[in-house]
């Protein structure tokens, strides 16, 4: 599904959106020798890129027309789904027959809506989800997930590989976004847990820095358990697992947090998910069963 970058000759590319990420993506394309046209809603954000050889476009229509007659690829890296429509709706007919890669973060349904919109206007569409921060672009460790039309992915792959390891995740245009948001959900919950722990030790005079030095290796080691939990969830049998729900009572973590005057919200949320399964009679099952609490609507 993923692979190394492959050589590609200079091709016309239009970059719409020169925020922190868009500017870095455009710069990487310039460094790779491509013919890059740039546009941003607010003026002035293209100065460095133009100095490096990018063509500035005053309007979106100018920007998307810039690749003709070769029909260059158009890349959108804007704020959100609404800003993508606000930018592209007025030039939908100009984009007919062109390839559009959307790297703006959207929800899965928004990605699907955009794919439908593109299809209705005869625009060739690929959705992408950037799993990297701007400084990571072009460096090892950067990954971008794509979904939608696999033929399009193959056609523009040479461009995509300039930025990161490119992975095609399937024909559903919402799949890349789904994986992105699911991973971000795990990341934000982990950070909230870390910061809750930092607040607990902070209430007792331990610096967050000291806590981070201890927490980072421990939490990293804990991620080794993802595979076992995943096997349990996929198998659907929680009866033969390791740590039981009864054993995992988190009431003492909640009480300790309250004793310290620290809001226990992050750990209380986990305890609530655990409690629901215990109350439903599953206390002897594996802790991974809280997955079933989450599936409940
Ligand atoms: N930066 C990051 O670390 C993350 C990494 C993962 C993926 N995200 C997503 O990438 C999209 C762009 O992110 P960004 O970091 O470039 O974001 P900003 O620096 O805030 O720039 C936003 C650009 O969007 C333009 N914009 C906003 N609203 C509109 C609109 N209604 N019409 C046209 N353009 C619009 C904004 O223009 P301006 O404010 O300069 O005029 C910027 O060019 C994003 O989806 C992340 O979630 C980045």
Automatic annotation (TrEMBL):
> Sorted alphabetically, which Gene3D superfamilies does this protein's record hold?
N-(1-d-carboxylethyl)-l-norvaline Dehydrogenase, domain 2, NAD(P)-binding Rossmann-like Domain
Domain named NADPH-dependent reductive aminase-like C-terminal is located at 172-296
Q: Which SUPFAM superfamilies match?
A: NAD(P)-binding Rossmann-fold domains
Q: Which UniProt keywords apply?
A: Oxidoreductase
* Keyword field contains Oxidoreductase: yes
Tell me where in this chain the 6-phosphogluconate dehydrogenase NADP-binding domain is found.
13-167
**Does Manganese appear among the keywords?**
no
| InterPro entries found in the cross-reference section | 6PGD_dom2 (IPR013328), 6PGDH_NADP-bd (IPR006115), HIBADH-related (IPR015815), HIBADH-related_NP60_sf (IPR051265), NAD(P)-bd_dom_sf (IPR036291), RedAm-like_C (IPR048666)
Question: What would be one Pfam family of this protein?
Answer: RedAm-like_C
Highest taxon above the source species: Bacteria
Signal sequence annotation: none
The family database entries (PANTHER family) matched by this protein are listed as: CYTOKINE-LIKE NUCLEAR FACTOR N-PAC (PTHR43580:SF2), OXIDOREDUCTASE GLYR1-RELATED (PTHR43580)
Family, per entry:
Belongs to the HIBADH-related family.
This one is known as NAD(P)-binding domain-containing protein
Which organism is this entry from?
A: Isoptericola hypogeus
